[in-house]
Amino acid sequence: QKEVEQNSGPLSVPEGAIASLNCTYSDRGSQSFFWYRQYSGKSPELIMSIYSNGDKEDGRFTAQLNKASQYVSLLIRDSQPSDSATYLCAVNRDDKIIFGKGTRLHILP
Amino acid sequence: EAQVTQNPRYLITVTGKKLTVTCSQNMNHEYMSWYRQDPGLGLRQIYYSMNVEVTDKGDVPEGYKVSRKEKRNFPLILESPSPNQTSLYFCASSPLRGAKNIQYFGAGTRLSVL
To answer: What is the secondary structure of B23-45 as a DSSP string?
Structure first.
C-alpha cells in the first residue's frame, strides 16, 4: 500500500461547481496534513494545512481530516478556471514529508 | 522578499561529472529539504535537515549528498551523476515552530544527465 494515495485524474468540474479532491494515507502516526497546488512547470504552493480532525475553511477552500478513516480531502467551492492545476496531498511522518502523486483538476469554462 | 533560491535553474551535464545545486533561504527556517519530481512518481524527498549539521535521508537518497554548514544554505551534491538522476529538483524550507512543516519551495532546477 502506497503511503499517500490520490486519484491521478484528470478530474473535470464545471466552472462554478464544487471540486472535491481526496487523499488517503497509510501511517496512523502521521500528524500534519497539507494540500499544495502546482501549476505546470511551477513549484508547489501551499493551499491548506490541517492538523486536527474536522474541517478547516479558508475562503473558497475547505480541508477535511478524518484520522480514524485516514483520509484528508479538499473542497474547492465556486471553481474558477484558474483552479486548473495539479493538487498534491502531503503528510508529515517522523519529520519526513510524504507526497501523493497528485490529482489533476480541470475546470471547464 | 521571503524566498527560497535555487541555482542553477537548468543544467545539462554528462554522466560522472560532479555537480552541485545550491539552495538558500532567507526566512531563518530550521528545516530544509530536497525533492525530486518525476512523471508518474510524484514528489519524493531526497534528504532533509532539521538544523545546522543535522541531515537525514529521505525516501530516495541514493546517489546524492547534502551538507548543512549554515542555517540558510543546503546544497545538493551529485558526486557521479547518472542518467536516472535526470529530473526536476526542488529545494524547500520550513519552520519548526508556528507554521510547522509547511514547505516553501524554490523555483526548481531541471537537470538532464546525458
So the answer is: EEESS--SEEEEEEEETTTEEEE
Count other Cβ atoms within 10 Å, centred on residue B35: 28
Once rounded to an integer, what is the mean pLDDT over residues B26-52?
Answer: 94
pLDDT tops 80 at residue B36: yes
- Say which of A45, A49, A96 has its CB closest to residue B45: A96
Q: Which of A49, A90, A95 sits opposite B50 (nearest CB)?
A: A95
B55-83 pLDDT tens trace: 999 999 999 999 999 999 999 999 999 99
Contact A45 B105 (CB under 8 A): yes
β strands within A1-109, DSSP E = 4-6, 11-14, 19-25, 32-38, 45-50, 54-58, 61-66, 71-76, 85-93, 96-99, 103-108
| Contact between A43 and B106 using a beta-carbon 8 Å cutoff | yes
Query: Is the Cβ pair B42, A101 closer than 8 Å?
Result: yes
Whether A51 and A36 have beta carbons less than 8 Å apart is answered as: no
Residue of B3, B5, B30, B103 for testing the chain A interface, max A β-carbons within 10 Å: B103
